[in-house]
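One record is given unchanged without comment:
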Amino acid sequence: MSHFLSVVNLLGKIITVFALTMLIPYGVAVWFDDGLSTIFSNSILITFISGIVISLITLPYKRELQIRDGFLLVVLVWLLLPCFGMLPLLSYFPELSIAKAYYEATSGLTATGGTVLTGLDALPYSINLWRGEMVWLGGMGLIVLAVAILPMLGVGGRQLFKAEIPGPMKEAKLTPRIAETAKGLWLVYLVLTIACLIAYRLAGMNWFDAIMHAFTTLGLGGFSSHDASYGYWDSPVIEMVAMVFMLISGINYATHFLVWRAKSFSSYQNDPEIRPYIYLVLSSCILLAVYLWLMGVYDDPLNALRYAAFNTISVATTTGFSNTDYSLWPIFAPLWMLFLSGFCTSSGSTGGGIKMIRVRILYRQFFREMITIMHPQAISPVKLGRNVISNQIIFAVLVFLFVYLSSIILITLLLTLGGLDEMTAVSAAIASVNNLGPGLNQIGPATTYASLSDFQIWICSFAMLLGRLEFYTLLIVFTKAFWQK
């Protein structure tokens, strides 16, 4: 019990920090006098006091975290922070059920971008900004932010960082101290966000939309302040800015950090995920543009390229923006885009899915199996660049793929049990697990998740958390072995 209370002690501190992030939309509410300053001040007060009380009650149990504690804390943070993040939404939308308010906050903090809200154009700036800020915080991971300040709290952060960050970054210390690593990652993230904000403003957005969409572009979570998303501007220049920064944010932030630290682009060349990621996304843009043109969806090839490129990049990077209702395209196009959302982005990026590095390992393992079948005595190691991939890693990737596919199937079955049609159910499962947001049919880019029942909404919320924490971090807490001493 004492180790659990030590986790709860740090959880209280993180909740306290989370309360401070609401000061930004509170300031916006005061500045624009939109009548929501009381709503945000009450939300800040409730969240801050809750965090302080939790910390004080469990103060005698404060100690250094073990690896198991790190996993538990990550799960508790991602389960409970949406409860506080939804407070302003519940206050402003009294008709919103707890299930849908929790979904909206979870969608933001997991950088998914699915929404249950309509009439976004008429919402107060403070509410829209809070939605965008949650995406931005969740994009890099609020835990990493906490790791950056843990030395001030007197708690080590190595265990948290390993539980939160997926892929190769788990084993790579980019700087001697993990807190310095987290600060470095956040610095790169902040600089890119500012660059994106300025680019949006120069491209024609007003300052508020530029800030809101810089948050959600770098976080790869497609919340927008307009129901029509990027169709609101109908601007190729704005769409070009979005595409560039979506592609950038789909790359491993550890690689961005190494490039920034070394002042050299060589790390991009050495990254095993970047080339296949860029080649696959850009070739898909061209393929779908030609397909849409030949199918007569667009008469002008350049127009076909514009819409195919923007929506393909948006879906492949699991962002979820749109500039047209692509669910009306011939079914091959949206299905191919949905397929790309499962694996295109790099590990350590703000995107979802199983990540490109795992696909590359599986791809090379496939050819090794073919060689083994033809030449049983041959020794054929799996390599990425100059590195030999151990069988242990290959087996782990295979199990991960099994869990990923099994989760999508199970979630689809649960959603159909709740009454959804097959296409809506399977696209909702894929979009939620991949942290994409919009799916097809009832939940396409021109609609929202508002038509789903509370039962279906809870399922989608759990699926988003499952995908954001890459399955193991969440599922391991529910095993008997985890709780045994």
